[in-house]
Specification:
The chain is α/β, with parallel strands linked by helices. It has 9 helices and 10 strands. It has a 6-stranded mixed β-sheet. The protein is globular and about 50 Å long.
Length: 240
C-alpha cells in the first residue's frame, strides 16, 4: 500500500461530463508514487485525454485531484501547472515562437526566472532531448519527430515533478519512435503516458491502468495486464 502522504498524484472519485451531457469519467481512483511510470491505455473515447487534462486543471470535474500536496484547485493552479509538464499529442499545439530556443524559454520566462537561469534551463532541456543544435531553428520547419522532442523540452525546462504525455509516439516513423523511447527512458520525473502504443508501454512503463468508458477497469503490473488476451480484447486492445 502506497503512503497517501507521499504520492506524486492522487485522484479520488473523479467524475466528469462535457456540456453536451457526455459522461467521460466515472468515479476514477488512481494513485501514483514519485518516480513511477504509469501507462493509461484504452480504446478511443475511454476518457484517457480527459483524465490527463484534469492533472493541471484544464478540466475540472467532481472529485479530488492532488499533485504532491497541492490540490488541483483555483488557488494552486500556478504551482500545479509548474509541477505538471503536459505534452500534447500534436506538438504544434505547444510550438508557436519564432525559434526553438524561444519556445523552450517560454515556460521559464513565465516562471519569472532570470535571463541567465532561463538560458540554462533551455539548454539543459534541449540536451535531455539531444536537440541542442535545434535552438536557433524555426520549430515549424522540423519533422514530426523533432517537433515532439522540442515539445517535451518545453515542459522539461520548467523542471516538472510529473510528466504527462498524450500519445507521444503517434505519427512517428520507426527510427523516430525508437529515439523517443530511449530519450524518455532516461528522464527522471514521474510519468503518466496515455497511449495506444502497447509496445512503448511494455518498454517504458512497469505499471498500466486500463481505462474504458470512463472507468479504471484494471490497474497492475504491465506484464500481467498485457499478457491477458481476454482482458485486452474486452477493452478494445490487442496483445503485442
Amino acid at each position: 500500500m502506497v503512503n497517501q502522504e507521499c504520492l506524486a498524484v492522487r485522484i479520488q472519485g473523479l467524475n466528469f461530463a462535457y456540456p453536451d451531457g457526455h459522461v467521460a469519467l466515472r468515479g476514477v481512483d488512481l494513485s501514483v508514487a514519485p518516480g513511477e511510470r504509469v501507462a493509461i491505455v484504452g480504446p478511443n473515447g475511454a476518457g484517457k485525454s480527459t483524465l490527463m487534462l484534469h492533472l493541471n486543471g484544464i478540466l475540472r470535474g467532481e472529485g479530488t485531484v492532488y499533485v504532491g500536496d497541492l490540490e488541483v484547485a483555483e488557488p494552486n493552479l500556478k504551482k500545479v501547472r509548474a509541477a505538471v509538464g503536459m505534452v500534447f499529442q500534436n506538438p504544434d499545439d505547444q510550438l508557436f515562437s519564432p525559434t526553438v530556443f524561444e519556445d523552450v524559454a517560454y515556460g521559464p520566462i513565465y516562471m519569472g526566472l532570470s535571463e541567465v537561469e532561463v538560458g540554462q534551463r533551455v539548454m539543459q532541456a534541449l540536451q535531455q532531448m539531444h536537440a541542442e543544435e535545434y535552438a536557433p531553428r524555426v520549430s515549424h520547419h522540423l519533422s514530426i519527430g523533432e517537433k515532439k522532442r522540442i515539445a517535451i523540452a518545453t515542459v522539461l525546462a520548467m523542471e516538472p515533478s510529473v510528466l504527462v504525455l498524450d500519445e507521444p509516439s503517434a505519427g512517428l516513423d520507426p527510427r523516430s519512435r525508437r529515439t523517443l523511447i530511449q530519450l524518455l527512458d532516461g528522464l527522471a520525473p514521474t510519468m503518466l503516458i496515455s497511449t495506444h502504443d502497447l509496445r512503448l508501454v511494455k518498454e517504458l512503463c512497469p505499471r498500466t491502468a486500463i481505462l474504458d468508458e470512463g472507468r479504471v477497469e484494471a490497474d497492475g503490473p504491465t506484464f500481467t495486464l498485457l499478457t491477458d488476451e481476454d482482458l485486452l480484447e474486452a477493452h478494445g486492445l490487442e496483445a503485442v
